[in-house]
Design goal:
This protein is of the alpha/beta class and 327 residues long. It has helices spanning 95-108, 121-132, 150-157, 166-173, 184-192, 200-213, 228-243, 253-256, 279-286, 307-323; strands at residues 22-29, 32-40, 45-50, 71-76, 114-120, 137-145, 266-271, 292-297.
């Protein structure tokens, strides 16, 4: 079968780099402005991309998972992140503000319905948005599922993942007094907020470095610290969200409300060796959801940049392009 221009076969690399055809700043109120960009085909099938964190940001690589001849790719930096302002602000910054922001961007761009693409925290937000606005979603493409539960947060910040990366965990834990290590999120929170603590910058880099070290299944376990400017944003926002249990009023909020989206198709791509968001959550999400296709990628970790993760996502998105379903 002849390959269409710009089309990728399974196992090929990402689509070539592409520049946005539209960049804008959207004032969403509460003192926040969001950076928004659009790439690909202005008249194509809309897909809204939700980045991870909380506290990350969209990157040029995220544009490259979509056939630019077919998709209208919408990316934005969530409140306080990336090129959105004010950076690192946690004022009026909750899950429900972000859901409202997605709706605002969708409406401003004249999009009726969209495929929602997100990984890690982006998968959490994609699910919450879809549950809240199921009529605005055509499908879900998820990676590295995080359901926002206490068990998941405790796994990563309570020593579970640390059993596999003991040197990295020791570095992370030693940053706070021993008597406070029974609740690492609270201990870091006391030092990251309001922001004038003498150790705030050092701990922001350690917090971010702990997550970065475990993102890839191929990491050598070395201890490193993130660039300060990025770490200040990422650590504050992620800690703020996890300290507040992702602003959900019950621990199993997503699974409790999953019936609202069970009519939608979903592809769930999950690394078998994901230490940040272990496969148990993706499995729980997919179990009993007829339209969900769970794909476990062997020898792959959490990061979007893992080759097996990227190939599975591109293959599924291309199949969606051609058939209107995941396969």
């Amino acid at each position: 079968m002849e390959q269409r221009s710009g089309q990728k076969r399974a196992g090929d690399s990402l689509y070539p780099p592409i520049e946005p055809f539209d960049r804008r700043i959207v004032d969403v109120g509460d003192g926040h402005t969001l950076y928004v960009e659009q790439c690909g085909n202005p008249h194509g099938a809309p897909v809204i991309v939700l980045h991870g964190g909380p506290g990350g940001g969209c990157s040029p690589m995220m544009r490259r998972f979509f056939d630019p001849a077919h998709y209208r790719v919408i990316l934005f930096d969530q409140r306080g992140c990336g090129r959105s302002q004010p950076r690192a602000s946690v004022a009026a910054n909750t899950t429900w503000h972000l859901v409202a922001d997605i709706e605002r961007i969708r409406a401003d761009l004249g999009v009726d319905q969209a495929l929602i693409f997100g990984g890690s925290w982006g998968a959490t937000l994609a699910l919450i948005y879809a549950i809240t606005h199921p009529d605005r979603v055509t499908g879900l493409a998820l990676r590295g599922v995080f359901l926002g539960t206490r068990g998941e947060i405790d796994w990563f910040y309570g020593g579970g993942a640390g059993r596999f990366y003991p040197l990295n965990w020791a570095h992370f834990a030693r940053a706070v007094p021993e008597e406070e290590r029974d609740d690492m999120i609270a201990a870091y929170h006391r030092r990251l907020f309001p922001g004038d603590h003498p150790d705030a910058d050092r701990l922001a880099r350690i917090w971010t470095g702990w997550e970065n070290a475990l993102a890839s299944a191929h990491h050598d376990g070395g201890v490193s610290e993130a660039p300060l400017d990025y770490a200040r944003v990422f650590a504050r926002l992620e800690n703020h969200y996890f300290h507040n249990r992702c602003f959900l009023d019950r621990d199993d909020w997503i699974l409790h409300h999953r019936a609202r989206i069970e009519h939608l198709p979903a592809i769930i791509v999950q690394g078998r060796m994901d230490m940040i968001c272990p496969p148990a959550s993706a499995t729980r999400l997919a179990e009993g959801w007829t339209g969900a296709d769970l794909r476990i990628v062997p020898l792959a970790g959490h990061a979007l940049s893992e080759p097996g993760i990227g190939s599975a996502l591109i293959r599924s998105l291309d199949f969606w392009r051609d058939t209107g379903k995941f396969g």
